Amino acid sequence: MTLTGTAEAGAAKAPPVPPPGRAGGRASAARRAWRTFSPYAYLAPFFTLFAAFGLFPLLYTAYVSLYRVELQTPGDLQWRGFGNYASIFGDEFFWTALRNTFTIGVLSTVPQLAMALGLAHLLNYKLRGRTFIRTAMLLPYATSVAAATLVFAQLFGRDFGLINYVLGLVGISPVDWQTGTVASQIAVSSIVIWRWTGYNALIYLAGMQSIPSELYEAAEVDGASRWRQFVHVTLPGLRPTIVFTVVVSTIGATQLFGEPLLFEGSISGGISHQYQTLGLYMYEQGWGFFHLGRAAAIAWVMFVVIVLLVGVNALLARRRSRKEAGR
Predict the structure, then answer these.
(1) 102: closest CA among 194, 4, 185, 203?
(2) How many CB atoms lie within 10 A of CB 151?
(3) How far apart are CA 40 and CA 84, in angstroms?
(4) Distance from C-alpha of 266 to C-alpha of 280, rounded to nearest angstrom
(5) Domains located in the chain, CATH noted
(6) Could you tell me the pTM of the whole model?
(7) DSSP bridge partners of 70
(8) I want to staple 204 with a disulfide (CB 3.0 to 4.6 A). Which of 120, 144, 166, 259 is the partner?
(9) Quick one: which of 177, 198, 199 has its CA closest to 189?
(10) Which stretches are annotated as coiled coil (predicted)?
């Protein structure tokens, strides 16, 4: 075989080479497709978990709230429409739980955020052992709700509690912290304050450290005192952070469950329901009286209450920002 014949045979056996432009176009199209769909691929796990454990339970709860469902026979559904909602709105204990949720929320949120703001302001200065103090402030947040509530229940004991012992030293008669309406709500609120003050203080501290130091230097040059710097520099710079903590604390107060449940160990929130919250009332209806449909209706009422409270907070914050922008 000649050299020319060998070359022709090798050329016949070689696979055809695609034009350079077609291969480059396919690669470019693949890259464009990946750039378009890759963000959705990264977000797909979150939305999958949210749909399975967030959206589906929410919609299914709304569905169940329209039926009569008992815990013993969860598969037996009887259509009631808005009958479950009418039943809870006609129950005086629902309005008691709603009122208790509001009062405990105010008693726990306002002092908690005020104390957290003051602690963050102190920690914003150069102090010895700041790292240790910041770590110690997170310990109540890391403590179990059950452990903290059981300890506070002993502290607020009527006969042998430490709180009544200290009050007796200053001549104040013992207080029945578990029977009195105001006293029991103060006791439950103190648990929430103790657990969440340090957490919010660190959030405020992070917000304070993001405020430019030039603003404080300019205020000091103008002769502003520490208090005026706090009012006119720190608070305006912390406004988004304060709005965030108020919203989160409002949601937490509306869903309060563990502290009132373990304070006395009763799902009724005391003898006369004096500190029963909406979360505890929902648990009582669903797992105490076995009315799952009514418990689902209460859950949706709580959801609407949270949305309304968050909306009011956002509206007030927006109006405040507009007023200050118009000055």
Answers:
(1) 185
(2) 13
(3) 40
(4) 9
(5) 83-326 (1.10.3720.10)
(6) 0.81
(7) 291
(8) 120
(9) 177
(10) none
